[in-house]
Amino acid sequence: MNDEKIKGRDLIEMGWKPGPAIGETVRISAEMSDQGVDSDTIKRQINAIQSDPKAYEDDAVWGDVAGILLKQQARAIQPQLRSEPAPLRVWGRELIDEDSFKQINDAARLPVTLRVALMPDAHIGYGLPIGGIAALEGAIAPYMVGVDIGCRMHATIFKRNPIHLKQKPALYEQLLMEHTFFGHKAPPRSERNQHPILDDPRWEMLPRQFNNLKDLGEEQLGTSGGGNHFVEWAELTVLDNNPMDLEPGEYIALVSHSGSRGVGFKLANHYSSMAENMAFFLPKQMRKLGYLDYKRGEGQEYEVAMTLAGDFARANHEVIHERISTALGRDVVAATLQNHHNYAWRVMREDGTPIFIHRKGSTPATQGALGIIPGSMAAPGFFVIGRCYDDDHILEHPSLNSAAHGSGRQLGRKQAIRSLDSKQVRNSLEKKGVTLLGGGLDEAPDAYKDSRQVIAAQADLVEVWAEFRPKIVRMADDGGRSLGKPMGDKGWGSRGRRKKKRRR
To answer: What's this model's pTM, rounded to 2 decimal places?
Structure first.
């Protein structure tokens, strides 16, 4: 046996860094030595691999060592966290928990982050907090967009006095129960709607594993998700000099909140996992902030998927509102408005570098942009108009032209279910004249911050031009103990309609 076998300390003296490459090299060197290869020849081979591991990537003997060295090189050239965090501006500091601050400060340390902001409705999320905004240079981060890609608000204003909601409550309840579908429920195949989104060429641009995703889209088109998603009838008060040129006064509004359903969920999971795996250079607790380089194929691929999911979310609302507006009478429609959150908007530098403005649970508040900021099922929400800069100067505004997207949670879902009393919540809703269809204790009004405090904390970002107060609210039954009328009541929903059809 050759007594001059290569040892780990020999490799370290030759400039190798401690790690798995040394162990594998020592093993191979020992085998070569046992086969009679002299140590000088082995050392020359080792030096050659160290100098140019790419040349040995496919070598039958040294390929594994070369692969390890290449990975080490890749890690060595990965960008480092910023020594000074990107600028951060906070609205409503006293309304925000400490965990959300930690998350937004982590986002501010990414090497690609230009600016971050935090809205008064902020609460902890995955990676970026809900209510967080981040501008990334040349990169897009799936978890900063969120799992429900393109979640949005949509409202139809009807030229009817809110007194109708009190005079004919059964009619308005029936419209919600007949024309909305929540959670895992979907319209029967014979009643599915059509929409141009189903003919969009981007379905065919998705990776192969999503070949059947359009089928899910066809099934879930015009439906709403669980959790805090809702469709509601509300009393609307429109102020003077509003941007839609409506007569000031009282109206009925149909307001909905939902997103891209299973379509967005599947796409988000795929690309979030990809970005997290590519974020090996980040500390473990920050890897959900992983991002995709836009110059690489993954970043552009995700943008296609994100925009498709966002447009699918828009289509869901359009179908829901069309069904209900047609049933109520399209002649009484006064106006519609919408906005979305959970999205990354691309703006371009003069040199062609893309900047992505990530708004995770945040409303665009560009100067003149219309938005909807809801409260809870028993608290007022607001129609607003943006007061920030124009889009050409978005990077100069400390909020990145953004505002809150709702009241924001002050109790987590499990905490709300444990600490709130369902009987007391029902009594409170009754006193406030709110009828709830479905809905869980985790969505009780006390689980949310005060919507008036939240809107007051961002008066410099948006101006209120209308206020809506929920009166008949439909939600999914998936959040702990049900608060409202159960979805399966006889005569309600699609099951009831199918029974009636069989009796004809």
So the answer is: 0.82
